[in-house]
């Protein structure tokens, strides 16, 4: 049972015990728990109902992804990048693909950039739907969960149409994309963009003016903007505290500067503000999708660099160089020049980045994922000390952490 | 791709080397100047935290390279600070009092690479079980798992790689 | 012969009852847990199969769907949760990571949850579709009906 005891290194301050002989109660929260959004363990010190400390213990989903990437070639590695922040796989793919493209010195084609933006915004909506569904499920509003899962199934069906996979698409790859869009996919996207605002209205109808939802989230989990930045937060954690920081606007990538959308902020710094931020971000994502769909440029989806991407199969019949390129790419893979690069993108949770160190061989020397959830999780303790134990559920929900991203 | 020239920064007296790689600004400092460098960056406006990590350059010396990435939200710029540690003494001062989120990142770097951060309040394993032996992300630690017969890497990587 | 007839008829009744009211314990670990959530959602609706109640406490559950990758740190926790479940209990190993270690053949993962607990149904996929999980539950229902009232050895 050693594994379940309090781990070394947890500094828990204990009340020395007052005159009545009262001590704080230490409660173990997880790792198997319905409301921790994955295998998170919190060791919570309670003074009655008030939380005095809430120390996270992580590592229950440590997958060794960074070591695994060192054993895979660059084009194989994209498959593994899907799986650390498993609620937004195309966004992880994009960070990795952009980093490798910067190392190789290529830039994706306009059509690829537009399709990448579409996939990322669809994923942002689907990730916020999981946040909305599970957070409301944990606070007792079960209906919202079923509504959100219905829309998310539509998005996953679109993922499947374009890439063959529902969740871990590996669609965005260094050099371009896996495959071009189909006419059926464009129709599905058009229909989705037309009907989604009405669905978001449905979620708001269920929750925004709901007195129980409001009383459980307003005033809960206060996090000032200065604290959020000082302690490493990003994404809706800082935008819900009034700071307008969004990497899509401030350090645009993949053609985001072409689209007109606003960076959503709220001033109240509590769980309700972050809920409003995420719902409004879904609306902004729908706007971006409509613009991207209407202005989708024609052209190739992959860069025309035979040292990086394989030739079309028809050419293998006629050209010897095509055969050699094909052979080298599929046995050895391409080797970026030695150097390092850090590419950050705005995921649904905040700044998600990929830092790659290349030593000139066909496998990376080091791949590090800067994960938004790893840093946002450190804010949970700051937000919950002093609140009631029931508020801890709302606070974990609002942090919207994905434990695969935290533990990698 | 635009070629940026590395500009002189407020870290100039401490800088051992500077450059621009794939569009990213970086400077190299000595490990003794690390805390001063990070404090200078923070007071210069780089308030937002990126990450702290380590790269193992085995068999080259110096073996370990610590990487610190910070960001300035107002002026929209980033900076990467590098420092090199020898294999026989992989220890560096902590920056977790300057940048609080570095607390967990330094614990992770200790856990996976074995770097000792002096002055860290609580340097224990964070991702692996407490009784784990070894530091997995070092290059001389095998990838592990089950050996896969007839794969190219089978003998060299899965069990005991000495070269990348 | 009369006694055997009683046992088999009773066994069929018990098997029918158990198979159509399997309550899973919530053991979603990683990405497969999201597809498990979709199976609970309106499109696939696991409640049709009697699995309406996904119990948080393993003491009130019959089925452990190991949905996701099992890290070395999580392995003792998984075994403890399994031991807390009362008999009769079954395990579905959902996804490639739970069945064999999946994409991640490295130091950090247990290469297959059957190294820790006995598994009844394996579902391949990364992640498997909700229809795959429904198929696995239907296979498990057949297995439960055949088991009757005999205790598992």
Structure overview:
- The complex is a heterotrimer of chains A (408), B (164) and C (153).
- With 408 residues, chain A is mainly α.
- Chain A has helices at 65-70, 74-81, 89-104, 110-138, 142-163, 183-207, 211-217, 225-230, 236-239, 247-250, 271-294, 320-331, 372-376, 378-384, 389-399, 403-407, and strands at 25-29, 41-47, 50-57, 172-173, 176-177, 339-346, 351-358, 366-370.
- Chain A is globular and about 80 Å long.
- The model of chain A has no long low-confidence stretch (mean pLDDT 88).
- Chain B is of the alpha/beta class.
- Helices cover 17% and strands 28% of the residues of chain B.
- Chain B has helices spanning 34-43, 102-113, 154-159; strands at residues 15-21, 24-29, 48-56, 64-72, 77-85, 91-93, 116-118.
- In chain B, the strands form 2 sheets. In chain B, strands 1-2-5-4-3 form a 5-stranded mixed beta sheet. A two-stranded parallel ribbon of chain B has the order 6-7.
- In chain B, strand 4 (64-72) and strand 5 form a beta hairpin.
- The longest helix of chain B is centred in the middle third of the chain and has 12 residues, at 102-113.
- The radius of gyration of chain B is 18 Å and the shape is globular.
- Chain C is of the alpha/beta class.
- Chain C has helices at residues 2-19, 31-40, 75-84, 96-100, 130-147, and strands at 24-25, 63-67, 90-94, 121-123.
- The radius of gyration of chain C is 16 Å and the shape is globular.
- The model of chain C has no long low-confidence stretch (mean pLDDT 87).
- At the A-B interface, helix 1, strand 6, strand 7 and strand 8 of A face strand 3 and helix 2 of B.
Counted by DSSP, the helix tally of chain C is 5
Molecular shape of chain B: globular
Beta fraction of chain C: 5-15%
Report the strand count of chain C. Answer: 4
Name the poorly predicted regions of chain B.
Answer: 1-5, 159-164
Tally of DSSP helical segments of chain B: 3
Q: What is the total tally of β strands of chain B?
A: 7
Helix proportion range of chain C: 25-40%
Taking the sheet with the most strands of chain C, its summary is: 4 strands, parallel
Main sheet strand line-up of chain C: 1-2-3-4
Cross-sheet strand order for the largest sheet of chain B: 1-2-5-4-3
End-to-end separation of chain B: 29 Å
Percent of sequence in beta strands of chain B: 25-35%
Structural class of chain C: alpha/beta
CA gyration radius of chain B, whole angstroms: 18 Å
